[in-house]
């Protein structure tokens, strides 16, 4: 049996809504004094369990607000679950809302190094990979442009290239295979398959069941934070999901 | 812990580089502003306050210069530390990265700035004929203490700031008031002797006066004074770490 990379057991995430920053210090003190202060908790993810082995590709399905992104943040280690546990073996390259986290005033080159460093890579490694990343993103002429000067497609291409070319063990893709123009989309899908066949474990969030059926070996269906289905029978899960979507 | 630090060593370097570059981006004079701003402040203060204190205080310009650069180091590092988590929300909410790194890098950037102004201080000392003694080296001690103090304050303030954005306005006012209590441009010997010790309630004054003793008066500060410097740093660092340890997991929901 191949090595288990991710094991999520009864993961739940709840967080306060109408958070403190909206009411400010004065309101907070008043409410505390009047004992009216209560935090409404929002359960974004409820009791989700699944596991992935090395080389698996998981498709995550669910309508907007189903808790997909929250679950991915748990896997990426950005949020810790409020109940349950999520064990992750290996370094994660999370592509959540691709282009955020770049610095608009820095150049393409500087941003590439910044992102690489955030992902935990050394200077030597990035020096080695940098030409490849730029070539794949097709930004050779734009290396000294600031990030804000790039078009949104170019930004996504850069983010995708960095995340995939540094050979992560676990890749999280949040609706990103739809980035760039047609040519880049084909190229990126091919690259994804290369990364996966290289042994990476991948989690793909997509609204396209067609894409999930074609690429994924496992599927997870979330709705309102609850896990409706998880398994290797991707086709069946996708069909159920499509059916549910069309009757809504 | 060590291996984690190794892993993020390069990130640390990149972030400091970024802070420094962005600070002076699109300026003609660049890093020279680090030197110009204290010079102009001290210039203005010298014109006014020499009339009041300059005649009775030896090396008054150096006296004010030390006050200015040390206080500026404190306020720059703590204000930067306070906003460092919030201003990197784009990274923190999307990629796993130790949040305290952003506070550390802000402090290092401010420390580099202080280093530049310390060079200027040496030039001032030459012009003002301050005697150079081996005690100059000991200045590193209060600076180290203040750096630890600033990191602690940054850990504490950044946490509060994530929850309450009012902190920004409050802290700005607080810093201005604190400056007036830090004897930056006046001497405290006008106050009755039995209340002068009260100034030491203010940690920044404690650090400023420690450095002045070493440089201007070429004397070794008392053991009490030395312990007080370390004590303030340790207490604030402890409080800051406690805040970070208890609350850092909920920062992401409030960014």
Characterization of this structure:
The complex is a heterodimer of chains A (248) and B (255). Chain A is of the alpha/beta class and 248 residues long. Chain A has one domain (4-247): 3-Layer(aba) Sandwich (Rossmann fold), CATH 3.40.50.300. Helix content of chain A is 40%, strand content 26%. Chain A has eight helices and nine strands. Chain B has 255 residues and is mainly alpha-helical. Chain B has one domain. Helices cover 75% and strands 0% of the residues of chain B. Chain B has ten helices and no strands. Chain B has helices at 2-23, 32-54, 60-87, 89-92, 100-127, 140-163, 167-180, 193-196, 203-215, 223-254. The radius of gyration of chain B is 19 Å and the shape is globular. The mean pLDDT of chain B is 90. The chains are: A alpha/beta (248), B mainly alpha (255). The A-B interface holds A 15-16, 19-21, 24-26, 28, 73, 76-80, 92, 94, 96-97, 100-103, 105-106, 110, 113-114, 117-123, 126 and B 7-8, 10-11, 13-15, 18, 21-22, 25, 90-97, 162-167, 170, 249-250, 252-254.
CATH architecture of chain A: 3-Layer(aba) Sandwich
Output mean pLDDT of chain B.
90
Helix content of chain A: 25-40%
What general outline of chain B do the C-alpha atoms trace? globular
Summarize this structure as a short list of keywords or feature phrases.
heterodimer, A: 248 residues, alpha/beta, Rossmann fold, globular, B: mainly alpha, 10 helices, 0% strand
How do you describe this structure in short?
The complex is a heterodimer of chains A (248) and B (255). With 248 residues, chain A is of the alpha/beta class.
